[in-house]
Automatic annotation (TrEMBL):
GO CC terms in record: cytosol
PANTHER family given in the database record: PHOSPHATASE YCDX-RELATED (PTHR36928)
Membrane-spanning intervals of the chain: none
InterPro entries given in the database record: PHP_dom, PHP_phosphatase, Pol/His_phosphatase_N, Pol/histidinol_Pase-like
Gene Ontology MF: a single term: phosphoric ester hydrolase activity
Gene3D superfamilies from the UniProt entry: Metal-dependent hydrolases
Protein name stated in the entry: PHP domain protein
Domain Polymerase/histidinol phosphatase N-terminal: 5-84
Length: 245
């Protein structure tokens, strides 16, 4: 039994500290056969890549590193933010078609597409951290936004669900199962991941264990995620980056 891929890593193209080559070399050193470069999109405030023109440069860099044959396949992806309460992603359909992998998730700091979402989607999530009374309504808004994104786009992975922006996992997981999108067990952040595993187990959804590495040294740091799914007796054949040997 072996985790063979890390499908969520960041580089200097957004808020990571390493290059594509450094992430790939680290993945190879850990014995992985695949690694994805999934930098933040341009509407993610501070952490996002500086304009979609950077996407073409990143795609060229991924292709160049693959030609070096470092012993690991490098996939070109993006971690796209949901930028409206109706489930729009920050990427065009054309940009998505250029990717090997689409990761999508909720992030608190982003530029919304419409002003109304600033008042009904962005600010409530920031206020919700200090005002518990807004919890149920806020969770409903977030859940609708994320589930609609999964329905509308070819999302391969939902990144760190229920981290920073709360969602109803019992509603999200069946949609992921229906659309063949994997819920992520993110080893890079500390939060309650048991609920993700249990919701996926009940809904028949898939899981993927990723590092969300922002430095090359953390690429492939996945052991805690594997320990979690084993502890909760999740069907291991539904962990997409786990090879059963």
């Amino acid at each position: 039994m072996k985790l063979f891929a890390d499908y969520h890593t960041h580089t200097v193209f957004s808020d990571g500290l390493g290059t594509v080559r450094e992430n790939a070399a680290s993945a190879a050193a850990r014995g992985l056969s695949e690694v994805a470069i999934t930098d933040h999109g341009p509407r993610n405030i501070v952490t996002g890549m500086k304009g979609l023109d950077k996407l073409n440069i990143m795609l060229e860099e991924v292709a160049r590193v693959n030609r070096l044959d470092l012993g690991v396949k490098v996939l070109a992806g993006l971690e796209a933010s949901v930028v409206s309460s109706s489930g729009e992603l920050e990427l065009s359909r054309r940009a998505i078609k250029q990717l090997d992998l689409l990761v999508a998730g909720l992030h608190p700091y982003f530029l919304p597409r419409q002003l109304k979402d600033l008042w009904h989607f962005v600010l409530p999530n920031h206020l919700g951290r200090v005002r518990r009374s807004s919890g149920a309504k806020l969770k409903n808004t977030n859940t609708k936004a994320l589930t609609e994104a999964v329905r509308r786009y070819p999302v391969d992975i939902v990144s760190h669900p229920n981290f920073m922006m709360p969602v109803e996992l019992q509603e999200l997981a069946p949609v992921c199962a229906e659309r063949n999108s994997s819920l992520e067990i993110n080893t890079g952040h500390v939060y309650n991941k048991d609920m993700i595993v249990l919701a996926a187990q009940k809904a028949g959804a898939k899981l993927v264990i990723n590092s969300d590495a922002h430095t090359p040294q953390r690429v492939g740091d996945l052991a805690s995620g594997l320990a979690l799914v084993e502890r909760l007796k999740f069907p291991l054949q539904r962990v997409v980056n786990l090879r059963l040997e």
